[in-house]
Amino acid sequence: MSKEETDKALSISAAASERAEAPAVIDHGKVISYRELLELVRQKDKELDDSVPYHLTASPCLDTIVSVFALLERKQPILLFHPGLTDYEKRVLAESVAHIDQKLPEDAAVILFTSGTTGLPKPAVLTRRALIASAEASRGNIPLNHDDVWLLSISPARIGGFSILTRSLAARSAIALGPKFKVEDYLRTMEEAKITYSSIVPTMLMKVFDEAPDWRPNPRLKALLVGGAPTSVKLKEEAEKKGIPLIMTYGMTETASNVVTTPFSLRFHKTEGSGRINPGVELESRDGHIFVRGDMLMSGYWGRKPLEKGEWFDSGDIGEVGEDGFVRIFARRTDMIISGGENVYPAEVEEALERLPSVKNALVLGKPDETWGSIVTALLVPRDKDQIPKAEDIVKTLEPYLAAYKSPRRIAWVEELPKTSAGKPNRNPACLDGLMLTSLHYSGKH
């Protein structure tokens, strides 16, 4: 797509000239047309300063949408902050980029902080070209038309939320806003706003199944896009039984959202892994490490060496591309547990644990150990806290599914699983501090 076409796709003025009276935003039931949204953007433009990048705390609300579209119209780069951060955390992040003297790319659109596993999050720079390339790649599999409505139920400070804004603007479709996620409110908004797409994380889907077991989707719903963490086979199977269309996604901030998705035609069926590679994306596995290339890649981390045009990006994930074309992600390289010289992928162990009728949720991490390097440790949320199984019964039940070196050696039953500030599973061993761990099987010093 040419620069002129990209600028037009991300222009609220162009959208309003094409679809003036069409719905642009459904704000808690109130329909705002593209013409009306343009007026709000013009008012907001008068309030904005010329700082580069412009600092914006992005919540799933109308003011954020208006601000983002106003800044995209200005072609003014945006530095996004998550609304859950404290003022201190925002100040630390702002200071971390304040003295960067590297000039931003001419078409820089947004800078998002990656979650990071150590140290401060890194500022990933996404250009206008990358955002539209991502939207086009996604649209090559997931049809997004004028009459579609995408529910914004996650923060635009994360690429999964921000891409809903840019994809919807480029497609001249509508964005719906609703209250903070609660199952009852979420399902009511889905119905009242006539939602056709919604992006959620596995935890949200699990809550829907737990709290609204009889819910079935309205025929208008084309798909729930599920990403941000591995989705268990159990969840996929339950969705298939209930006729709920799921599209698995795999992507990251650095790739301007998903690069792998379930084929649209298979959304009512349980599928393998995270789906197939999006049109226009190059993805390959080298010795088990996932590399990505394409126009949707970031220009680089601000303040560090930029990516060269056509350069392959090391995702930091471990996975494979099967002969069937499906991509299977096993773990983040930093999440992999090395126990006694053997590689253990947490998601595989979690999937086996969640097969147990007594286990509602599982989180697997490595506990540092003198003898083994790390020992496989699991935090488990029970389905019924009054019916906790014996340790030996858990070991016996897991035997058909896991090699002995993968099976958890220590467990603790908890009320809920720890999460990072980004809402992803927290596998930091510090999460085990203060917990009473039960030994299932163990060889070596305690």
UniProtKB/TrEMBL annotation:
Q: Which domain of life is it from?
A: Bacteria
Q: Start and end of every AMP-dependent synthetase/ligase domain?
A: 101-302
InterPro entries, alphabetized:
AMP-bd_C (IPR025110), AMP-bd_C_sf (IPR045851), AMP-binding_CS (IPR020845), AMP-dep_synth/lig_dom (IPR000873), ANL_N_sf (IPR042099)
> Pfam families given for it?
AMP-binding (PF00501), AMP-binding_C (PF13193)
A single GO BP term for this record reads: fatty acid metabolic process
Which residue range or ranges hold the AMP-binding enzyme C-terminal domain? Answer: 348-424
**GO MF annotations for this entry?**
medium-chain fatty acid-CoA ligase activity
* The protein's name: AMP-binding protein
Question: Which species is the source of this protein?
Answer: Parasutterella muris
